[in-house]
Specification:
Length: about 140
């Protein structure tokens, strides 16, 4: 089974496609697909210590941040285009936002190099929050 994803095709239907793809890998996973809104958002992440946000739409980002202000949230903003020089890492209490803060995916094409670069910075922030890691020379 071949799967091809692009920024323009991501939707609820894409969630089903991704679900099928992961099941095709024979991984032992549980899945559910549900649209998040103000009536159910507290059902999703209440048992999480750290939330890594990857919503495309501003209203979902805002809803998540407002609903879980006491949790660590790592969010992306400005992942479109290819510019890696202007990526910033801003932290406000338990909220960290990583990106260039201008290249919205509605206006700029997405490139895996930039998306993965920001994802790596987000993962590194998780390691910083968890702690216990040392910078050691090999």
């Amino acid at each position: 089974m071949n799967f091809k994803f692009n920024g323009k095709s991501m939707s609820l239907d894409s969630a089903h496609t991704i679900k099928e793809f992961i099941h095709s890998l024979n991984l032992n996973t549980d899945f559910f697909i549900e649209k998040i809104d103000k009536n159910n958002i507290l059902d999703f992440f209440s048992d999480c210590d750290i939330i890594i946000e990857a919503f495309d739409k501003k209203e979902f980002k805002t809803l998540l941040i407002e609903s879980y202000s006491t949790k660590y949230i790592i969010s992306a903003n400005g992942i479109g285009g290819r510019d890696l020089k202007n990526i910033k890492n801003l932290t406000f209490d338990k909220l960290t936002v990583i990106g260039d803060f201008y290249s919205d995916i509605k206006t700029y094409q997405t490139y895996s190099t930039k998306v993965m670069f920001i994802a790596c910075l987000m993962a590194n922030k998780v390691l910083n929050i968890i702690g216990g890691f040392f910078d050691e020379k090999i």
